[in-house]
Amino acid sequence: MLSLPAAVRIYFFAEAADMRKGFDGLVALVRAAGLSEYSGHLFAFVSRRADRAKILTWERGGFVLWYKRLERGRFRRPPIAPEATRVRLEADQLTLLLEGIDLQSVRRPKRWAPQGIDTGEEV
Q1: Mean pLDDT, to the nearest integer, of 5-18?
Q2: What is the pLDDT of residue 79?
């Protein structure tokens, strides 16, 4: 499982990405979504056939790009509202997604947080 600081957000893009895109092409998608590519957040993209995924982030002086290709099966996109361009994930959700596990079939308990504290969960 990924271990990320709480301040790092993970954005999964709803639209299939062209996996021929490199750093600059993916940065353009991040900018078009109104996000800062230098924030240190993770930006996850899946191909049209859903057998390839890329994750882009900025890390001390340069971009980092992770790329995974499934030899069998497909990545299961998380549930995303029809009008949404992206959805926020938690580190454990990204790990499950990268393993090809359907996030819709995973049931999680609601986390408790003191009143007025942003837990980062979508409502």
Answers
A1: 90
A2: 82
Q: Which residue has the tokens 């995924």?
A: 53
Q: Give me the chain's average pLDDT, please.
A: 87
What pLDDT is attached to residue 119?
56
Indicate the domain borders of the chain.
Answer: 10-104
CA dihedral angle for residue 41, residue 77, residue 1, residue 45, rounded to 10 degrees: -40
Residue with tokens 């062209």: 18
The DSSP annotation for 41-67 comes to -EEEEE-TTSSEEEEEEEETTEEEEEE
pLDDT tens-place string over residues 36-62: 999 999 999 999 999 999 999 999 999
- Residues 44/103, Cβ–Cβ less than 8 Å: no
Answer whether 89's CB lies under 8 Å from 61's CB: no
d(CA 35, CA 20): 21
